[in-house]
Design goal:
By secondary structure, the protein is of the alpha/beta class. It has 4 domains: 183 residues, Rossmann fold, CATH 3.40.50; 81 residues, no CATH class; 120 residues, no CATH class; 207 residues, P-loop containing nucleotide triphosphate hydrolases (Rossmann fold), CATH 3.40.50. The protein contains 27 helices and 17 strands. Strand 13, helix 21 and strand 14 form a beta-alpha-beta unit.
Length: 675
């Protein structure tokens, strides 16, 4: 599915100048020329032309979206080949679709007279399923009143079941409107809904009947979205669908000759998530009961018995990585694999009974996960977790995704990876190695290569003057972080800094416990300030309040490290309580560290320190979001100044002016307030 596109009916257009496209786009949006953005355009264009992979670090404010869109669209016109862009999240997809791509397309048309086609492509569950909507029956009240009236009637008085029913009714009504209008029924365009509501109008990939067997296949929204993608020059997808494409032989994405991966610092994490499987007694029980209708009593009983076998094995397992094939979990998984194999065989490949076909697909998924756990492959990590809500669960994840990316992406497709944080410890090698690109295959910026795994690294800098705009304060005098929560000295330091900044603080903590502890202390010591803590309300609501009121502070954990963009005086102080090393009880990260050690490398630096450097770079990057921003990043972990690995971590951060004197940081914050 890789290589040149099959859209060969029209000849390639005259070569478009990426620099001219960029200049026109920047001019139309009222921007100014940025040397870093111009350097990025030239480097991406050369990578697409010459076939050498590129890692390009483009700091905040560079304008990296146009930095890759201009050369990508020029390449589409010049070669009549398709380019795929993969973003980290659906939100970034939406930003490209509504803002950056229209501006780029307008520029291309103005410069060349041609307007390439662009399309957005998401995973199956992001589109409504007509079979699920039309075969599930309508709530009784639907025949009497409209969905809007139902929602209003139950919004404050009905129980959860009634509210869900009204929500599903509204979604189904919207789906039919989409079908009549030849729309795509994209979840992002749907009426307000919960995850439970959307699950009633969408379908898991495994349970899809297939366009040939579905009674509504001719109207399928997923197929319509794929048709649009196949007809487009530029296709925007996300990391998760890119992972599915790599794992399933290139069947999820249309043919393409080049790939651009935005927010590439998240690629390994998101590919890992997509390749991770989960097994719980609850899921097994629900799946078994779906299949019972078509099973004889003996086989049905055997399948239901496996629920108790799995639960007992999980209860007997330690909450850590499973290494022994004789441990309870692999033994139970092997039994489950054998029983589900028989069930899948008994259900057969029936095409005229949709419910039976879907039940068989659900059981086949259980079989695949059980088989993977039972094998305990050296390439996988198996572990058990426990939570108050879900109880015990088994997980299996790839030890690394470097081989998958190397073999299924880089070996076949010219790829550009871009992010504000790709150079860790002052070098691109850690990020390149994590995705399967070896240091030995790095070539110079002007050097040509016919090696399909050759790559270049380029840092185009940032338009911000970090040394003038910000201070990095490392609290060398504080005690090192301990396991018993934040020390009194650290809590007092946090309160003093928040006082000096008069709020305006984003607190990034390694744990919810630490965030809550700091919030409680500051509320007590600084009663005139508003301190919000993650968990007080929905994160989106907390962020809006934090943005609207500069005197407010927001304390939270990992979801704030990368996802909050608050320019201006609302955020003039970023506090980081400790270096964000992986948790010592994280089975996957510890397994990856051990694998590097066993291979003769330095697992701590390759895995733990690199992980920490990436998060620190993302966290400190919350401070300066535009050229007018000023402030302080306070890292309250003295190891950044005292440990040998501290220099590696500091080399990964923006070039702030550095101090270990807390009084200097306090005075700087007071000056920002005019004191």
């Amino acid at each position: 599915m890789y290589g040149p596109t099959s859209r060969t009916s029209s000849p390639p257009s005259p070569v478009a100048d990426p620099a001219a496209i960029l200049a026109h786009a920047v001019g139309e949006i009222g921007g100014e020329a940025r040397p870093g953005q111009e350097a990025m355009v030239a480097a991406v264009a050369e990578s697409l032309r010459g076939g050498v992979h590129l890692l390009v670090q483009a700091g905040t404010g560079t304008g990296k979206s146009l930095g890759y869109l201009a050369p990508a669209l020029a390449h589409c016109l010049a070669t009549n080949e398709r380019v795929v862009i993969a973003t980290a999240t659906l939100a970034l997809q939406a930003q490209l679709a509504t803002k950056d791509i229209p501006a780029a397309l307008d520029a291309v048309e103005a410069v060349t007279g041609s307007r390439p086609k662009a399309a957005i492509l998401k995973g199956r569950t992001n589109y409504a399923c007509l079979y699920r909507c039309r075969s599930g029956g309508q709530p009784d009240q639907g025949a009497l009143v409209g969905s809007g009236e139902v929602l209003e009637a139950v919004s404050t008085t009905a129980d959860d079941v009634s509210r869900l029913g009204a929500e599903v009714l509204a979604l189904r009504e919207w789906v039919e409107e989409q079908a009549a209008a030849k729309g795509l029924a994209d979840r992002d365009d749907a009426p307000s809904h919960t995850a439970k509501g959307w699950a009633q109008v969408s379908i898991p990939t495994r349970e899809c009947l297939g366009v040939a067997n579905c009674p509504f296949g001719a109207e399928c929204f997923v197929e319509a979205s794929r048709d649009e993608a196949r007809d487009a020059d530029l296709v925007v997808t996300n990391h998760a669908l890119l992972a599915i494409n790599a794992m399933h032989g290139g069947t999820a994405l249309p043919e393409h000759s080049a790939l651009i991966i935005d927010e590439a610092h998240e690629l390994v994490s998101r590919i890992t998530t997509a390749a991770t499987d989960e097994l719980t007694p609850g899921v097994l029980d629900r799946t078994a009961r779906r299949a019972l209708t078509w099973l004889d009593d003996d086989l049905g009983t055997d399948l239901l018995d496996q629920v108790d076998v799995l639960r007992e094995a999980l209860d007997e397992s330690e909450l850590t990585r499973i290494l022994s094939a004789s441990a309870p979990l692999p033994f139970a998984a092997a039994q489950l694999r054998d029983v589900t194999r028989r069930v899948v065989s008994a259900l057969g490949k029936v095409t005229d009974d949709a419910e039976r076909t879907q039940a068989a697909a659900a059981v086949k998924e259980i079989f695949d996960v059980a088989d993977r756990i039972a094998k305990l492959s050296d390439k996988d990590v198996v572990w058990v977790t426990s939570s108050d809500i879900l109880g015990r669960a088994a997980y299996v994840a790839p030890l690394d995704v470097a081989h998958l990316l190397r073999d299924e992406v880089f070996s076949t497709t010219t790829t550009v990876l871009t992010s504000a944080t790709l150079s860790l410890g002052g070098t691109f090698e850690p990020a390149a190695g994590a995705v399967g690109l070896a240091a030995a295959n790095r070539v110079g910026l002007e050097e040509e290569s016919d090696n399909p795994l050759a790559w270049r690294g380029l840092d185009v800098g940032s338009p911000f003057d970090y040394r003038r705009q910000g201070i990095l304060y490392v609290a060398r005098r504080l005690p090192p972080p301990g396991r018993d929560g934040l020390s009194e000295e650290t809590l007092a330091e946090i309160a003093q800094l928040v006082w000096a900044a008069e709020g305006r603080t984003l607190g990034l903590f390694a744990s919810r416990r630490a965030a809550d502890q700091a919030a409680e202390y500051c509320r007590r010591e600084l009663p005139d300030f508003t301190i919000l803590a993650q968990g007080d309300a929905q994160l989106s609501e907390l962020t809006r309040t934090f943005t609207a009121d500069p005197a407010t502070s927001l304390f939270g954990t990992m979801s704030l490290w990368q996802g909050v963009d608050v320019p201006g005086e609302t955020c003039q102080l970023v506090i980081i309580d400790k270096i964000p090393f992986p948790r010592p009880d994280d089975p996957l990260m510890q397994a990856r560290k051990k694998a590097v050690d066993d291979a003769g490398g330095n697992g701590f630096m390759s895995v733990a320190a690199t992980h920490a450097a990436l998060l620190l770079a993302q966290g400190t990057g919350r401070l300066i979001r535009r050229s007018e921003d000023r402030g302080v990043v306070a890292v309250l972990d003295p190891r950044l100044a005292t440990a040998r690995y501290g220099s590696f971590l500091k080399a990964s951060l923006p070039g702030f002016w550095l101090t270990t004197d807390g009084d200097v940081a306090v005075q700087a914050l007071r000056r920002l307030r005019g004191d």
